[in-house]
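Table S5 (text form). Sequence records supplied for joint modeling of the two-component complex.
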Amino acid sequence: MSLINQRQGFRRTRGKNAFWGLDPILTVAVGLLLFIGTLLVYAATRDWYAANGLDPEYYLKRHVINIIIGILLAWGTTVIDYRSLRAYTPVVWGLGVIGLTAVLIPGIGSEVNGAQAWIPLPGGFQIQPAELSKIAIIVGMSMLLSEYRHESDAPTHRDVIQALLVAAIPVGLILLQPDMGTVFIISIAVVAMIGASGAPSRWVVGLILVALLGGFGATKLGVINDYQVKRLQSFVNPNSDSLGAGYQLRQARITVGSGGLFGTGLFDGPQTNGRFVPEQQTDFIFTVAGEQLGFLGSGFILLLYLTIVMRAFTIARRSTDAFGRLVCVGVLSWFAFQTFENIGMTLGLMPMTGVPLPFLSYGGSSMFANMIGFGLLQNIYAKQRG
Amino acid sequence: MNLRSRLSLLVIQIFIISLMVALLGRLFYLQVAAAPQYKDAALSIQSRDVVTPATRGLIVDSSGVPLALNKVGVAITVDRTVIDKQEDKGEAVLRSLSRLLKLKYVDVLQGTRLCGELEAGKRAGCWTGSRFQPIPITKDADPALALQIVERSDQFPGISAAPVAIRSYPANADVNAAHMLGYIGPLTESDLAGENGRTYFRSEYIGKAGLEIQYDEFLRGSPGIKTFTVDRKEAVTNTSKVVNPTPGNHLVTSIDVRLQAASEKALAAAVARSRANGFRADGAAAVVMDVVTGRVLALASYPTFDPNAYERGLTVKQASDLYSEAQGVPALSRALQGLFAPASTFKAVSLVAAANAGYNLNAKYDCPSNVQVGTRLFRNFDSKNQGTLSMTKAMAVSCDTIWYKIAFDEWLRDGGLRPKSNANDYFFKAAEGFQVGTKTGIDLPSESSGRLANREWRKSWHEQNKDFYCNYKERASKAQQTAFLLELARENCLDGDKIRAGDAVNFSIGQGDTVITPLKLAQMYAAIANGGTIWKPTIGKAIVTTEGKIIKTISPEKIGKLPATKATIKFLQNSLREVVVSGTAAGAFSGFPIPLSGKTGTAEVFGRNADGSLKSDTSWYAGYGPTNKPRYVVVMMVSQGGFGSTSSGVGVRQIFETLLGVKGSTIVPGAAIYPEGKPSNVLPKISPATKVKKEAP
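The corresponding structure-token record, covering 1083 residues in total, follows.
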């Protein structure tokens, strides 16, 4: 705690700008997304809940609470010292692995949409250990990949293997749930980090090959569940399963397309209010933006994501040490590919997987993880200034 | 940072930017380029149209008495989308429903089957509409039964009862007019697909036959539409658009209900008379027309059906009886769809042909008992030798042999079996001038055009049939291999493409392959009566809005002139008067106080009935009057009805009695249907409550 206090004291004397030492661009972009997301979650649920005699602000209230907790977590992550970060990382990783093991045990984990990914908590809350594992994997791998000897400026094969092990254990457990969307996002982040660490390029090439073969083999050998094959089929031919996954994808596309250039206006979308797209406040939140805010609004949201990712690249390049750079690359790849996976699914470019849209979707675990990721970027930014 | 990691960072950055650009591009495509089609798709998901049917316009007679109107009925409907989901496909529900309604289960089952679900030939009584609309079992149910269904809705899933507007044919003055009025029914899939160029809503009912279909665009009105926005649970979230229904317009016809009813009665009586005389009388028709305008005043066909049966709900038997041969095919409107040889009524055409060919109408002609034509002997009617007759008298007694002689001579003059290229063809040309073989153009659907068996027709007939006749021995059944038929087949094979002497001779007395409808004969005799103008028969007079504004007047239309001089027509008229005075119709019209004219016809029919009996003659009578100033033409035809005079002639007299206000042989003052001596041009006030005019005491 004393370390944190020291840092704050340091900040108080040095921080002259309006952002208290935070990256202004990143902060504004994330702030805007949180604000828009709050409106969208409310717009997605208000009319339907009111029409069915439920509390119209149910989701709004919970979403705001999630954001407040998220801001606190981001603040904590921003001000924490590098060394503490390294100290906590194994603990977080360990907790993540325990959580991921626990969700697989019947009676503890609960199944939602075919994936055993959640641990229910008292009070109607539930946590998703996979989200926290993303942080542990990124920070853990960054530690291992940046601790090379001084005569070298690149990790050795041994470092890479150790780092891959850090990722492989949680990823293996997530595969068992199975949550292919998260596996895909983590895998890309892992490859990006290994590439950015300066490790021999055959690792990168090799890993991409392994991923491709693994994906192909899994489909062929039936490791992938029936429902995932269905989702993939309905991606290729949206009419093949008219009431299941294909229905959702077609409804999602119609909802976005019907928004047109200007949208139907916030709270005014008949597709959203009629709740023709399921999971509207979580995985399909982008349909609400598409219908109600139109191309101008949803295009603006896309630009906000691009801004965050581009800013993260800048922070990565300016980072004085390899650890900070790798954390940045890990976090930005995670944000970028999760965004692409989610919006791509909504627009019919990607198969259906149950990943939320960062900063916008309703959902505690995801929000907390995103805000911690955001905090990590701020932490690294602050270190450059410090 | 080493070079490799710098490079990696750049590659990742480019990769991510391109992914984001791909998303932006896709977003642009969905929301800008393809937005209209997605907006349409969204609209069809979110919006539900509730259609309020428009009130259908009335069909009234010339004095405003309703022939078709609307009333409130109670519809009991079956929702196929619900009962199909039940384990027994709704059998139990339909069975208890049929018990409740005291209907046969098979009828209820059939009534709820889409026609497309059934094999061809087993479709009688099927549902012509769609699966997705409630299918009415009846629209005229007992309200007490309907209430039971509503109260016990758990026992009748998919069945509902609700008040609906139904089409009603009130039978004022006991009129039937089913063939002329038609009926209404649900839309078929091809109607919905817009095959007739109109757009409909699924729940609408449209005209299916008769005037109901002919004037459907005016009668139908346009339905009201309320567009609701619904959510996934089909709960209404918003009402976005309301279009009120526009009631349909009324159709004023030239029909008079009293005259129509009298025609139907006379027709039924003629059939009964024929049957009493031992004839089969399997069908009949009557037409009454204004010869000065071509307006149809009555149009009847026998056997008929109850036009209200459609809305009440047809049983399988009722539906199949409509087209059953055993029942005489009641659905067939014999007045405009029945084709029969015109027989002696056609001599009016022959007389015009003879005059045009230069025969002296005032000369005397031989009427022997038979005439040798080639190898065949053609007999006079009843083989009677009538001696030497004037042409007028020949018409009056309906001598055939005069025409055999003239027709045979003309045939020889035209080259016989080696016809000249510039053959005169006086008989064919006269028939063409009378427009035989073309439709009259009446404002009713499905009219038959008839057939003019001239040289062209002969050639095309031979083209189609020579294969059969040239291989008759192999193709025909054993029963058809008699010596006579074999000889006939040989002739048909060899020179069936040519008009033979027998064809020419038969043509002149309206026998052979030339056939016409009773309506066509009425049109022809109207032209004779009015001095030569061929009118297009019309039933509709005007389309009037519910506020009484006339939006369309249907004017009579001249469509031709008879190919005869004034003098010829005058001579023909005198001859037709003589028929009634001293000829074949003298008995039927004896004592009628107003001079009338006309012509009998008794057509031989070849072939056999289903039970093997030989077919009886077709009985015809075409009459007009009053002779000095003709105004009305009345035609009656009784198929297999026997003699023209006794069956149809008497029937026509009965119609004239009603029309002109005659009882026996006295004129009852003020009893005529048209007291001014002609139908009125004034359009009536329209109200569903208009009553039939009382007969004068």
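Note: The mean pLDDT of chain B is 89.
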